[in-house]
Every structure is written in structure tokens, then in C-alpha cells.
Amino acid sequence: MEITQKITGKQPTQAELAAENQSLRARLAYLIEQAERNHSIMTRHQAFDLEIVGAASFPELIGTIFRTLPVISDLDAVTLALVDVGDDIRTVMEKLGVDFADFPDLLFVPDVESLAFDLDPGLAPKPYLGMFDAQKHGRQFALPGMRLQSVGIVPLLRNKRLIGSLNLGSLDPTRFSPSLGTDFVEHMASIIAICLENVISNEMLKYMGLTDALTGVFNRRYVDRRLLEEIARARRQSYPVSFMYIDIDHFKRVNDTVGHGGGDEVLREVANRIKAELRLSDALARFGGEEFVVLLIDADLESATYVGERIRAGIAASMIELSHGVKVSITASVGVSSLAQVPDGSTPEEQATQLIEQADEALYQAKEGGRNRVIRYAA
User: Fold this and answer.
1) Helices (H), the chain
2) pTM for the structure as a whole
3) Which end of the chain is more exposed for a tag (fewer CB within 10 A), N or C?
4) Greater model confidence, 39 or 62
5) How many domains does the chain have?
6) Exactly one of 290, 291, 350, 368 is catalytic; which is it?
């Protein structure tokens, strides 16, 4: 007002003072509102960062990202694309029980070239903020019926290595534009990338600790743990669980004839033939030596015996050709038991022990009865 007064040489009127005062108040209210809004956004994102950092498993981390990020950032679409050369990540997660049907917005791509970035040799890719291009971004947003207008495609980088992309979509054409700064989304993507790498590494180590190195199937440690979980769940939800003990007949003769290297090849092929007869919900493990076990979910004794017969026939159906050209004929004996044969009053640990012992007893009867046969446990 002093400047106005000096230039015009006139005192402002009461009305002018009131109008200017009102304008200043409105401006101040707007700034306070923006500050409170920015503080709220920052607080929500800090809480999000803490939540994903604390995620203990791959499904927990992915679920948190897809559940929380669209809400706190007011987005219409959020997807993740992960580089998965050779399907290693997906395969391991499936073996650890991850159901990817729960995460339709999680994408796996075979290489970095499949991501929506312009890749320059020696330079880290930069985020893309701008209009949605169906031809360029359609793979990142396979969302039927949703007409996105603007997107943010943000690289997930670890030690300058591109591991995927965080893909943000909006129906608002002005939400993402090239003029916007990228510091915030890059920071968010860096936190997500660190969490993804850590949790995937932990899941891989978990898988290795639960897997038989020779055959690639699970080991006894995994089955002992899974059996307790399934018995408790089966009792609560009233579905049948069965257990199968499989032993390769005369395996010592195989080792004596073709050597331990040839015996290892036989074990790997037998594991593959057993897996071919199982569902994804079932669990196959090597207990040691030439012994395998199968945990069958939602399968009663009759159904499990039928599967056991298919496994027995599949193993015996054709000779196994070894790497040095020798062919060997293999058969196996199978013992089957069911949770229905175990008393309800015992603990899950006691029930698991009895279920294994019953299958082992049935296997012994199959061996004594001439081998290459399936015997179900009879109390």
C-alpha cells in the first residue's frame, strides 16, 4: 500500500483496503491448505515406506504396493513389471505357494528391452511422464475398459541395474506431464526397488533351504513344515489330505551298474515323472537316497491311491536314457495313507508322524509283496 500511495499520491480507500486484506487472507488460506495437503501426502507416503520396508514376504510386499499406493497417491492404475530372465523368480515364488492370480497387475518380462524405456548404452533410464500411448504402454497397463490419459513409467534400479518398472496411470490427462519434476517418484521407486530385491533374495534363500539340490524338488524340511500346516487347515476346513511314500526299487543295483553319476540322473528323471502326475497344490519332496514323498491336498485315500498308480506306471512306462547313452529300466513301490485314518484327538505333530508312519508301513508291504506296486495303508 505504501508503494501505491507514493505512486498515486492518494490514500487507499476503506473499500480498497478491505478488498486487499480479503485477497491476502484468501492467499494465506490457500497456502496453508496446500501446506497441510503436502504434509498429509508426505505423512501417508512415509507410512507407506515403513510398511513396505517391513514386508516379510513377496506376497506381503506386492499386496501392500497394489493395495496402498493407488489410494495414497490418488491413482487409477498401478502395475509393476519385473525383469525375470528364464522365469526364475516366478518359478520359485510358485513353488513357495504364491498364487499369481491374486496379483493381476504384477507383470514379468523376459528382458530389459521389454520395458517401456528408451535405453541408451551406459546411461540409466529416466522416468517417462506424459500422455498414455497404447502402443508403447499397453503391455504395462493391460486393463480392459480403462482409458488411461496420462502415465508415469518409473525405472526400478538397483546399483544402476534395471530390475523392472513402477507404472502409474491416471484418467486425468494433466496428472503426469513432462514438465513435472521426477524427484518424488524416483525416490519412491528406489525404496520399492530396494524392498523388492531384498524380499526376492530372502525368498530365494528360503527356497534353497527347502529344496533338494540334486532333483530340484522340495526336501524333508519343507514337507515336515507344510504337512503340519495342511493338517491344521484340513481339520478346520474339513477336506482330506493324503500322504505317499515312493521308493525306487533296487536302486543300489543302479548305482553299482551305472555309477553314482548315472544314479543321480535316474533320481532327477524319476522326480520329473512323479511331478508330471501331480497338481500345483500337491507337494513333492525327496526324503533322502532314493525315497520320495508326496503330500496330496484335498485327496482322500481312494483318489491318492489312483494317483499313486499313475505315478508307478509313469516311472515304469519307459526306460531312462542316461547322458552316456546307457538305458536303464526303473520301477518303484508306493505306500499311501490318509489323514482320515489318523485319530482326531491327537496334535498336528502327532498326526503328521502317524501319517508318515502309515505310508511307510504301506510301502514296506509293497516291497514285501513283490515291488512295483501301490499299497494303501489298512489299519
Assistant:
1) 2-8, 14-53, 58-72, 88-95, 134-137, 183-209, 220-237, 251-275, 301-316, 348-368
2) 0.68
3) C
4) 62
5) 3
6) 290
